[in-house]
Description:
It is a single chain. The chain has helices at about 45-60, 65-70, 165-175, 180-195, 205-210, 225-235, 240-250, 290-300, 335-350, 365-370; strands at about 15-25, 25-30, 35-40, 90-100, 105-115, 115-125, 130-135, 140-150, 155-160, 200, 260-265, 270-275, 280-285, 325, 355-360, 375-380. By secondary structure, it is an alpha+beta fold. The radius of gyration is 22 Å and the shape is elongated. It starts with 13 loop residues before the first strand and ends with a strand.
Amino acid sequence: xxxxxxxxxxxxxxxxxxxxxxxxxxxxxxxxxxxxxxxxxxxxxxxxxxxxxxxxxxxxxxxxxxxxxxxxxxxxxxxxxxxxxxxxxxxxxxxxxxxxxxxxxxxxxxxxxxxxxxxxxxxxxxxxxxxxxxxxxxxxxxxxxxxxxxxxxxxxxxxxxxxxxxxxxxxxxxxxxxxxxxxxxxxxxxxxxxxxxxxxxxxxxxxxxxxxxxxxxxxxxxxxxxxxxxxxxxxxxxxxxxxxxxxxxxxxxxxxxxxxxxxxxxxxxxxxxxxxxxxxxxxxxxxxxxxxxxxxxxxxxxxxxxxxxxxxxxxxxxxxxxxxxxxxxxxxxxxxxxxxxxxxxxxxxxxxxxxxxxxxxxxxxxxxxxxxxxxxxxxxxx
Length: 382
């Protein structure tokens, strides 16, 4: 008789499952997420919708309003969804976050029409409901919430805003005086830490060609300030900068001896590919679009939250957090060699437990991923 494998405890909070119960083309979909997860499928299969759901949950976990997380809520209503008698339509998404507190489930029901609002939220662990909310009075901009208290009280009831994630508000509302309250806090904080540790990355080569103004050296989501970030990593992160330069030798045409930057005083920064002794350097603005996207994605995979324009949970040390990179069109404009090198870098970084990658890819990248141990490929069908 075989013995079931025991769950390996997660030391850093991470999203291990994404649920799209009713979202765009997806109904009843459950997607397990590994350290490197690639979503593949033909056009219209819902790859971008999967990443949009994850990005929206991350935004809500960071304190965004529904309007900020879902700027186009009508596009998220399930296909062929029929409005009810009150002309209401919406969508449902959720996730499971594993970490020191154990697996915690978050499920969210959102009304998109006629007005955008949360109509139900549930936070649960081991089958026990820790937080539940419901829209009781459509005339009020709030939901009725109940969370576990324990002891003689059992549960605490109070109104919460109908445009924000209740789980993200709990650390401000729960004192932690009872065992039940401490369980609620541990679960809520684990979910919030995992969702806040997300960086959506969509490199825009046309914005990366011009010299970048000197700033904090924190990479933007479109990677327009790549040159300024390279200036920072060159001086502060020697090991990672050397790894990036080595990767550039694989992903960029011609011989690459290193990565350098050029700036006059406090003026704009120009990034350069060094070509070796006696050979002129190449400004990155002269590189092809695929080469620029490759450099940007390689930089993201090799750095951490401190070098990215994001707001991770300040209450935890960076060593206790895992950064999740979301990349729609991860392999856009890349050849097989470049894609293979980025997947190698992803596995290198993810193997340390500090970085995770969730990406939408084309069939060529999916084929590569299927042959690489440690890469999870999720095939979607329209």
